[in-house]
Design brief:
- The chain contains 13 helices and eleven strands.
- It is an alpha/beta fold and about 375 residues long.
- It has a single domain, classed as Alpha-Beta Barrel (TIM Barrel), CATH 3.20.20.140.
- An eight-stranded parallel sheet has the order 1-5-6-7-8-9-10-11. Strands 2-3-4 form a three-stranded antiparallel sheet.
- Helix 4 runs parallel beside helix 5.
- The two termini are about 15 Å apart.
- The model has no long low-confidence stretch (mean pLDDT about 95).
- The structure holds 2,4-dioxo-1,2,3,4-tetrahydropyrimidine-5-carboxylic acid.
Length: about 375
């Protein structure tokens, strides 16, 4: 059974050029003392402060041969690559549709260089008009290696419960494309303390801000009835669904006790979080512990959880050699193996790759 990485990012060369040409976040800049390129992408780095130094960025982000080398080092057979955050969200509306088209063509061509080893989630021009977004969604299935789309939580700037997204959900459902929903915006940095948590590096926004952002975005989709309207819409949640597997019970209980929702008739005939988790949501296995992985499997089912690495993010802090295995990856492999009993090898193989091959049709 192949090993498949469904959570693995790229910044193609043309996107790197874009980041290098910018002077506001997101951007890439070479700063003293090393003068090597550093990336500033997160809202918590905006505006850059005197203590904010970004993070190193190198060819592992844009040179696809490095992705393949990383796959070989970790025995990964197939990767479904996606543009990393913040995708095309920051582009002026007038540039977004053309940029998405160029980028997606580029991703498809990149996959073609390694037939059978690479597939992709396309990027959407979320700052363009709904018509242009829908048009790109409808164009993607014509491309050999595209298997869905990657999307952040901002939607058309008002979040994913925005009714203006109806046509987008309808197009995704109609074309049978999986939405890979990924965080970027986190929480307002004030929640991390007077300095925005800077004294703790990137720990708070990445460990907590990202998963909570995903949890809130999916909860808003659920509450606004997205899955009541689009019952065939499939969404793959990054980081094992944020905290949704743990909080789904509390979410459902709060819904069942909400007088406003009752008065507005919103409690009748609604699909619950449990139903959505078992039928519409796929969870990646990027949660770094057996405890979180077991929760993901418990709520979604072992056949709906999919291995991922988050490459090229979370590299080892000290490099010991090109062929060194990454701690962030071995931790997730171990969590998957430990979450299942000795007689459950089939489930392990499913999470490691079988589920992805089946659900994302990874055959050429
Ligand atoms: O470390 C990070 O900033 C990130 C990021 O931005 N996106 C991602 O997918 N993983 C880690």
């Amino acid at each position: 059974m192949p090993i498949v990485d469904i959570h693995t990012h790229v910044y193609p060369p043309s996107y790197m050029e874009l980041l290098e040409s910018r002077s506001t976040v997101p951007y890439v800049r070479s700063t003293p003392p090393t003068n090597s390129p550093r990336v500033f992408i997160l809202p918590s780095e905006d505006p850059p402060s005197t203590t904010s130094t970004g993070r190193p960025i190198g060819p592992e982000y844009y040179d696809i041969s490095q992705k393949i080398a990383f796959m070989d080092t970790h025995n990964i057979d197939i990767s479904v690559i996606s543009l990393a955050n913040p995708w095309l969200d920051f582009l002026p509306s007038s540039d977004a549709a053309a940029a998405a088209e160029t980028l997606n063509n580029d991703l498809n061509t990149t996959c073609d260089r390694y037939p059978g080893r690479l597939f992709a989630f396309g990027a959407l021009p979320m700052s363009a008009s709904v018509e242009e977004i829908v048009s790109e969604i409808k164009r993607l299935p014509g491309m050999k290696y595209m298997r869905g789309v990657v999307m952040g939580t901002s939607g058309l700037e008002k979040g994913l419960d925005d009714e203006r997204l109806n046509e987008v959900w309808a197009a995704l459902e109609e074309t049978g494309q999986t939405v890979f929903l990924h965080p970027h915006y986190g929480l307002p940095k004030e929640v991390y303390g007077p300095t925005g948590g800077e004294e703790y590096g990137f720990v708070l926004p990445l460990a907590l801000g990202f998963p909570l952002e995903t949890t809130i975005a999916v909860s808003r989709m659920l509450l606004s009835g997205v899955w009541d309207r689009y019952q065939g819409l499939n969404v793959l949640l990054a980081h094992s669904g944020g905290t949704l597997p743990f909080l789904a019970g509390r979410l459902e209980s709060c819904i069942a006790h909400d007088g406003k929702l009752l008065r507005e008739g919103k409690l009748a005939n609604r699909r619950t979080a449990w139903d959505i988790l078992q039928n519409n949501i796929l969870l990646d296995a990027v949660v770094y512990s057996e405890v979180g992985l077991k929760a993901a499997v418990d709520v979604a089912g072992a056949d709906r959880v999919l291995f991922g690495t988050d490459h090229p993010f979370f590299p080892p802090l000290e490099k010991n050699g090109e062929k060194e295995k990454w701690l962030s990856v071995t931790t997730n492999f171990k969590a998957i193996k430990d979450a299942f009993g000795p007689g459950e090898m089939e489930k392990v193989e499913g999470v490691l790759g079988g589920n992805a091959v089946k659900l994302l049709r990874l055959e050429i």
